[in-house]
C-alpha cells in the first residue's frame, strides 16, 4: 500500500509539473488560435515563427545574452569556488558561503531594483547619456548566476583528492598546470552542470532583465511580456516548445555523458 501511494504521489507531482508544458507543445501544432479547441494539426505557427524578424531578433538577443553570461559566470564562479575551497579558516569559509547564498534567497524584484539603482548611480557619476544598456544587463545576469555556479562546482571540488594536485606539482607541474591537468578534468561534470544551469536561468529571466535593460535590446521574456498587454500569438507557443525540447534533449545528453564518464572512471579503477 505504501509503495502504491509513493508511486501515485510521484506520478501526480510529475503530471502537475509537466502537464502545462505538454499542453503548450500540443497546441503549438493547432491550426487555429484557440488554446482549448484543437481544430487540426498544422505547422502554421512554426512557419510564422521563423518568418517573424522581430521574434528571430529577440531569440538571437536572448541566446547571445545567455551564452555570454553563462560563460563568464562559469569562469568566475569556478575560480571563486576554487578559492573558497582552498580556505583553511572554517569560520571564514562558512561566512563566504553564507554570503554566496544571499542572492539566491533574495526576491528577484529586490535584486533587479537594487542593480538598477546601482547602475543609474554609477552612470550619473561617469556622466553617461544612458545608464542602462546591454552591458548592464549582462552584468546583472552574471551577478545572479554566480551563486548557482559556485554551489554546483563546490561539491565536485570537495570530492577531489587533495593529494592529486600535490602529486602533479611534485612531478614538475606548476600550480596552474596542476589545476588544468588534474583538478579541472575531475570537476568537469560540475562545471558543465553549472554552465547549463546559468544558461537556463539567463534564458528565462524576466524580472531582473526588466529593471536593468536599456532601450534597443529586447529579449524573449521581455517581448512576450509586451504581448500580454494585447494578446500572445500562438507562434510563441511554438517558440517555447522548441526551447523546451532543446533544453530537454541537452539535459538528457549531459546525463548520458556524465553516466558514461562515471562508468569509465569505475572501470579504470
Description:
It is a single chain. Helix content is 79%, strand content 0%. The protein has twelve helices and no strands. The chain is mainly alpha-helical and 269 residues long.
How are the SSEs placed, and which strands pair?
Elements lengths: L1 H26 L16 H8 L1 H33 L4 H16 L2 H18 L8 H26 L3 H8 L4 H12 L1 H17 L2 H6 L7 H9 L6 H34 L1
Task: Give me some keywords for this one.
single chain, 269 residues, mainly alpha
Which runs of at least 5 residues are low in confidence (pLDDT < 50)? none
Task: Work out the strand percent.
Answer: under 5%
Q: Number of helical segments?
A: 12
Q: What is the typical, i.e. mean, pLDDT?
A: 84
* Series of secondary-structure elements, N-terminal to C-terminal: HHHHHHHHHHHH
**Total tally of structural domains:** 2
User: Which structural class is indicated by helix and strand composition?
Assistant: mainly alpha
Global outline: globular
CATH homology superfamily name of the largest domain: MetI-like
Number of strands: 0
Instruction: Give the CA-CA distance, first to last residue.
Output: 41 Å
Q: Estimate percent helicity.
A: over 70%
- Return Rg in Å: 23 Å
Largest sheet: none
In short:
The chain has helices at residues 2-27, 44-51, 53-85, 90-105, 108-125, 134-159, 163-170, 175-186, 188-204, 207-212, 220-228, 235-268.
